What we know:
Elements: E1 7-10, H1 18-21, H2 25-30, E2 37-40, H3 56-73, E3 74-75, H4 90-97, H5 100-111, H6 127-137, H7 155-171, H8 175-178, E4 181-182
Antiparallel strand pairs: 1-2, 3-4
Amino acid sequence: xxxxxxxxxxxxxxxxxxxxxxxxxxxxxxxxxxxxxxxxxxxxxxxxxxxxxxxxxxxxxxxxxxxxxxxxxxxxxxxxxxxxxxxxxxxxxxxxxxxxxxxxxxxxxxxxxxxxxxxxxxxxxxxxxxxxxxxxxxxxxxxxxxxxxxxxxxxxxxxxxxxxxxxxxxxxxxxxxxxxxxx
Length: 183
């Protein structure tokens, strides 16, 4: 389902895995689990009172792009059940290598689950992680009220850490994480 123009969804932040909460209680207290939030984007996003500068959440976005690129090019080892190389649809490559508008469209499509395959079919279990991470990048934190905990620069990093750790803990012994090579 596509969202109406001007509407965005701030994803829920999940509970921390116990392995994380026990080691970082201050972080889990600072960023408690939160429900999904539907917001209206500002009508004129260019009228922010702040100038652009590199912020912590941009590092999380870089992690996302590296993970997405890796997931797109990784192939199962040739010995893995005789699976052939599979190639990603050219349209996805156009968006990931295109301008900012095309990359934003890719993130939005991933966040809404519109792209059915951005990885080799063997690595399909990565798709939900990629989609969940993308969902956090769709909303600019400056659209939120200043008092909202999700408007803090380290919020996206916290959400990414929780999602990635939960994914690793859930899938650490699965074959798709143990069997990879590069084209």
